[in-house]
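step: validate -> pass
step: tokenize input -> pass
step: predict -> running
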Amino acid sequence: MVRSSLFLTVGALLALSSSWVQQADAQQQCNGYAELCSRTYDKVSYPTTHNAYAFNPPNGLATNQINNIPTQLKDGIRAFMLDAYAAPSGNPKEIELCHTMCTLLDGGPLSDILAQIKTFMDANPNEVITIFWENAADLKPAQFQAVYTAAGLSPYLHAQAKGATAWPTLAQMISSKKRLVNFIDSGADATVPWLMSEYDFVFETPYNIPKGTAYPCTIDRPKDQRKQMYVLNHFISGIIQLQGNTISLPQPEAANQTNGPDLISHINSCQTTFKQIPSFVAVDFYQKGSLTETVAKINKVKWNGIVADGASSGTNGTTNGATGKGVNNNSNGAAGSLLNGKSVVAGFLATAAGAIALLL
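step: predict -> pass
step: emit ->
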């Protein structure tokens, strides 16, 4: 009877330890990887969607993505490029997400997207999210403040002082709950400190890359100014003129190549040129090719294997070290490693095993 009770105790301890391992792993993971927790925000690379809101109508003239924002979040996208326009209704407390003009592509009100982001952040407390704003309509920071406040996101907003080069670690951002970072390309001011001027912290490579041309590794915005982080703009387009506007046409049929071998080559080239990893790797049609796997390799972590919804596999490569100011459309590269992060429970398991042995 005693031995039977002891076996039950062993089983209970093992079940408890297994649960503890799982909880410890979850607590130690930051943006899906234990190794990222100790890294500062500026030393991590983030999968990024260009015009993340532009997923509807499917196969539309200006559609840059296939999946909606909740699906993008589920698939591991952690940075989003959004374009801000005045609401067609004229409501100053709302912002519309449009592509060049709302008659071309209207992604709906910002309030809807922020509600979806908040739902994800509430349910996933170990994730750090970034939003890049193109302030196309020259909206005031107070307008952004009103929409974010109404969405209930105020507790999550991180503010980094201009000139402050010491970013917190992902673990610190998660602990403080200040884990939603917002950059805006123009119009920032001190009245809304969390809506940060992008080019105080980040530079971008050229974004207007015609299909069939080289992928550049030059500083486009702000012109010739190095910053602490950079956006690797990696999407190709065709060009048409519409109502006096120059319209960039996304190229979904090329996305497996663009987001696969070409992406790896572009990253290798820019890492060589800038001597730093791209902080934000921005693509169209992220579910094609190998974006999240490639970013995991940049971060030197073992890819967690999450496959994008509707993914169409691209060609994966090994490190090839392309160099120079730009690369053509065919190449390959990248590599990484993993630490398991389970040592936190080793002492407990050893102690429990020793106690059980004594009882037996």
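step: describe -> The CA atoms of residues 38 and 169 lie 6 Å apart.
step: cleanup -> pass
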